[in-house]
C-alpha cells in the first residue's frame, strides 16, 4: 500500500469496529476438461466458485495484502489442478482444491468450493452415441465442499430440473380463514423446478470408495420415481416422501433438503364462453403461471 | 375517450406525422394443454405471442378504440381455441388462430403468431416411460406463422439447444492484417447454441398433410448428424453443410437460416506452470468463454 | 483446410444449394474507455456487436478461409480504434469501425455495428458530483450503424427504461366480441419498458456536425414529457403522440419506431374481503402482472 | 386426502425418517400500492416473499393439510393488508405481516418475510418533478424480517446497485506462490454490484420511531461517500472501511455484511499494435470482464 503508508485512513475505525466472519475468492470459473486418451472422449464441464477463509484482518483493516492469495491465482490453480486431478467426481475435485489452497499460505485456514457440473448427453447419430459430439442435457449436478484441508463436509445436489405430472396431485382440507378463497381440488397438475441437496455422512466423506457420481444418478432416479409413484395430497407430502426414499436408498446420506417451487398451472376460465374446463375434463387448458409461486422447503433426516 | 372528446391533443400532429407499419397483440401467453382421454396423457406446453395488423389509425391518431380488439381478448381466444384446436402441431394452431382473429373485426387484416413449444420427455420410472409424469427436455420447437387468414407463411425453428464437439474442428488460413493476433489451429472444440429456422414452401403450407412435427424431428436429427459428420474448417462451412443437408432431406423446406454463436473454448495457458496443454494434449483444460463470442449467420436456399 | 484438401465433403451439395444473405462477426465486446486527461475523468461503457457482410461463399462452400477476417481480429480492432476514435458518440464510432473493416480485406463489403452504451451518473458525494466515481444509471443508449464505408444508415435508441404513470390513462370503447370479457376503465396505471428507435435522415448522417448525444438526450426528455402530458385512451394513442412529438422536435430524424410492452397493473380483488379497491379508490392495491403482456408497436414517420 | 384415506403411502417411512427444519410460503408476490389522496401520488412497488414456520409435520408425513394455510391465502393477505398497513417502510410492513400470519392458525409459529422495494424517481418534465409520472431507478431496497409475531429481527439492504471508480484503487503486495501470475498495480478501475445488508439492534427494532427509510437513504449515501473517499489497496480494505463508516453513522445498526463482486476491468493489450495502454495512460481502453469475478464478503460489527 505504497501510496498510503504514511497514514492509514482506516485508523479512525480500529478498535471500535471489528471484522467478523469473512471470505473471499473467485466465482464463475468456467472449466472444461476433455480426456481424449481414447477415441471415446470424456467431457467434464464445471463452473467453480472458490471462497477461502482465514486470518485476513490485516488486509481489511490495515491494507496489508501479504496474507491474501489473489483470486486470479485461485483461477489459475483450478485450471492447473484440473488437468491431473479432475479425473473423478466434482466432489473429489472440491476436496483436492481445498487441500491445495490450505497450503498456499499460512493465513488460509480453509474454505468452501462450489461446483456446478453441466451434464451432457452423447449425441445420437443414426441412433448411435457419438464418440466426440455432445448435446447439453437438462439439470445440473451441484456440489458444495467445505473444510480445513483435513476434514470435509460434502453436500451434493440436483438443480434446474423441471418435472411435472398431469394428475395424481390434489390440495384439500387445508386451513381456511378470512382471506382464504382458494377452492379445494383432488386433481391438479403438479410442476416444479427441482433444487435438492443432500449431505453426506462423515463416514462416507472419509471413505475414498464413495462413488458420488453413482449416488447422484441414483438420487436423480429415486427423485423421479418417488415423484410419480403416489397421489400427492400436498407438495409437502411429496417432499417428505421423496426425501425419505432417498435416505432409505443411500446410507451414505445423512440428511436431505428439498426446495420445491410450486409452478402453478391454473385451469383457464372457459365457462364464460359456454365451454367446460375442469378437473374432470378429458382435455384441460391451463395457464402456466410464472408468478407468484408457492415455495415448499424442508429437511428430511434420519430419526 | 370520454374525458377528451371535446379536444384531441393529437390534433396538433395530424397531417404532418403519419402512422406507418404497426402491430399489436399479446405476448407471453403461457398455454398448457393436457389430453387425458387415454391413460397415457398427452402434454402440450406452448408460449404464444400474437401480433395483429390492420387499420388501427383511428386509435393511434384520434383515440377511437372501436377497431381494436383488446389484447386480453386475444389471450382468452388462445386458451379457448386450444381446447378443440391444439390437437396437432403448433404450426397448424398458429394458422387456426390467425383465421379466427381475421374474422374478429373488420379492422383486422391478419397478423403473426409466434409459438414456442417447450419439449417434455416422459419420465423414466424403473426404466419405463411414465403415463403422466414428465421431465422438461433441452431445446425448443418454435414456429412463426403469418398471414391474412387465407394465405400463410410458416417458419419453424429449433432454439436453445447447446451442442459441442471435442475435435474435428479447426480454424486456419484466414485473412491476416495489422490487428490479427489469433494463431491458427486444426483441432479445437466447436460449441454453439443452436438457433435455426426454416421456411416452408407455399405448396407445403397449403398441403394439409404436411407433418410439421415429423419434419421438426427430422431437422433436429439431421442438424446433429451433419454437425458431427465432418471436419469443420470454419463455423461457416458447417453452416452451409447443415443447411444443405436439411434442404436435401426435406423438399417441403424452401430455405433455412442458421445462426451459430461460436462459444469459444480456449486452452488455458498452463505452460507458465511447466505443464503441457495444447491441441495435441491427451487431456485438455479449457476456459469456456462467455463473452465475447463470434456469431455466424446465413441463409441456405435452393439453387 | 489441410485435413480435407483432397476432398471437400460439401461437394455433394454444390450447385444444388446456394448460400444467400449471410453475415458474421463478434458479439458482446465489452469496451470501457476512460479519459483521464483532466481530473474530471470521462467514462464510456459500450457493448459492441460487429456483423460483416461480403463475399464469403468460398469459406462456406469450399472451406477456403482466405477471405474471412477472424472475429478475434474484429475484437482487437474495436479496442485498438477506441483509444483514439471513441471521442464522441457511439454513432460516430460505429461509422469509424465500418470504414475500417471495409478496408481490412477485399471480400468485405460492409456491415452493421450495434452499440449499447450503458449510462453512468457521477456519484454524489456530500451533494457534489465526483470526479472519478460513478453510479450506473437506468436505461441504455443504443445505436445501429450500417453501411459500406461510404454511405451509412444510423438508427439510435433508448432501451430498458421503465416508466409508469399512476393515472391519466384509460381503455374504453374497444371492439367487443364473443371472447371479450375485459371491463372498460377510464383510470388505470400505465407502465412500460421503453424500446424506442429512431432513424436519422441521410442529410443528418452526412452532416458531421450532427450531435447524436444531444439528440439522444432530447428524445429521452421528449419521451418522458409526452408520456406524462396527456390523458392516454390507449397505448397506441400515446405511441403516435410520442413519436410525433419527437419528429416535430428533431428534423434530423426521419422516422421513429416505438415498442411498448404494456406492463399490466391489475386492481387486486379485495371486494371478497369487504374492502373497496377500485379505479376511484384513494388508495389502490395492484398486482404488477409479469406475463402475459400487451405489446404495442409502430412506426411514426413524416407525412 | 380423500383418495388415500385407507392407506398412507408414507407409512413405510414413519419413525425412521424425520421432518426437520422446514418452511413454506408464497414467493414473488408483486405488489404495487398507490396513494392518490393528494395530487402528488405516492407509489410503493414491492416484491414480497413469505415463508412460514410452525408445526407442519402432519401434512408432510400423513397428508393431513388441516394445519396448512394455503400459499394463495398468503398472497391474498399481502394485498389485503397493504391497503391500510403499507403506509410506512417495508420493514414495518414485514412485521405487520408476520403478526397477522402468527394468528392465522395454531400451527403457525412465525416466519420470515422478504421484501424487495423497487425505487422510482419522479419523472422530470420541463425540469419539474411530476406528480404522477415516474421512472424506475437503479438499485433496490431490500428487507428481511423474521419473528414469532412478538419479537423480530430486521435486516435491511441495498441490492443491484452498480458503482465504479476510475482511479484510486490498487492491488499490490499480495501473497505470491507457484500459480501466481498477476502483476501488481497501484492504479486500476474498481467496480462492483453492491449487495449490502445490515442488521438492526433489538433496541432499534422495538423502537417504533426507528425510521428505516431514512436510515436506508443514509446508508446509501455513506456507501457511496466511503467508496470514493480513499485510495483502496484492496476490495477487502474498502469493505471494512465502508462497513465501519456505516456503523459509526447509525447506532441503530448492530452489524453489516458487505458482498462485493469485483467486476474486473482489464487493460486491453494494445502494445501488440505499437500502442500504449497502461495504468499511466491518459486514455485507457479496458475489457469489462463478465466472468470469472472475485467475490469479497465479510461482516463488520461493533467491537
TrEMBL record, chains A, B, C, D:
Recorded superkingdom: Bacteria
Catalysed reaction, written as an equation: urate + O2 + H2O = 5-hydroxyisourate + H2O2
Keyword Protein biosynthesis: no
Species this protein is from: Deinococcus sonorensis KR-87
Gene3D superfamilies from the UniProt entry: Urate Oxidase
One Gene Ontology molecular-function label: urate oxidase activity
Pfam families: Uricase (PF01014)
GO BP: purine nucleobase metabolic process
Signal peptide from the UniProt entry: none
Binding site for 5-hydroxyisourate: 71-72, 188, 236, 262
First-tier enzyme category under EC: oxidoreductase
Residues that bind O2: 71, 262
Record EC number: 1.7.3.3
Gene that this polypeptide is encoded by: pucL
Alphabetized UniProt keyword annotations: Oxidoreductase, Purine metabolism
Name of the molecule in the record: Uricase
InterPro entries found in the cross-reference section: Uricase
Active-site feature positions: 26 (charge relay system), 71 (charge relay system), 264 (charge relay system)
Amino acid at each position: 500500500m505504497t501510496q498510503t503508508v504514511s497514514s492509514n485512513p482506516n485508523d479512525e475505525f480500529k478498535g471500535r469496529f471489528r471484522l467478523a466472519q469473512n471470505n473471499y475468492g473467485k466465482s464463475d470459473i468456467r472449466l472444461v476438461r476433455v480426456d481424449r486418451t481414447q477415441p471415446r472422449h470424456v467431457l467434464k464441464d464445471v463452473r467453480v466458485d472458490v471462497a477461502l477463509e482465514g486470518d485476513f484482518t490485516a488486509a481489511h483493516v490495515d491494507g496489508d495484502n501479504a496474507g491474501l492469495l489473489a483470486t486470479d491465482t485461485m483461477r489459475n490453480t483450478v485450471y492447473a489442478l484440473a488437468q491431473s486431478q479432475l479425473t473423478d467426481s466434482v466432489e473429489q475435485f472440491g476436496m483436492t482444491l481445498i487441500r491445495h489452497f490450505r497450503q498456499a499460505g499460512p493465513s488460509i485456514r480453509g474454505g468452501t468450493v462450489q461446483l456446478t457440473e453441466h451434464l451432457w448427453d452423447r449425441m445420437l447419430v443414426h441412433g448411435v452415441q457419438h464418440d466426440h459430439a455432445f448435446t447439453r442435457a437438462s439439470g445440473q449436478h451441484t456440489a458444495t465442499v467445505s473444510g480445513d484441508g483435513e476434514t470435509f463436509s460434502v453436500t451434493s445436489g440436483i438443480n434446474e430440473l423441471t418435472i411435472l405430472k398431469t394428475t395424481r396431485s390434489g390440495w384439500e382440507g387445508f386451513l381456511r380463514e378470512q382471506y382464504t378463497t382458494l377452492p379445494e381440488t383432488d386433481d391438479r397438475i403438479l410442476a416444479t423446478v427441482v433444487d435438492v441437496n443432500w449431505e453426506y455422512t462423515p463416514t462416507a466423506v472419509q471413505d475414498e470408495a464413495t462413488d458420488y457420481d453413482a449416488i447422484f444418478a441414483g438420487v436423480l432416479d429415486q427423485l423421479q420415481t418417488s415423484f410419480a409413484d403416489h397421489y400427492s395430497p400436498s407438495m409437502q407430502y411429496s417432499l417428505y416422501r421423496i426425501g425419505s426414499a432417498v435416505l432409505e436408498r443411500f446410507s451414505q446420506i445423512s440428511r436431505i433438503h428439498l426446495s420445491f417451487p410450486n409452478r402453478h398451472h391454473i385451469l383457464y376460465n372457459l365457462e364464460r364462453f359456454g365451454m367446460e374446463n375442469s378437473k374432470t375434463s378429458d382435455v384441460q387448458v391451463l395457464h402456466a403461471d410464472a408468478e407468484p409461486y408457492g415455495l415448499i422447503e424442508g429437511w428430511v433426516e434420519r430419526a
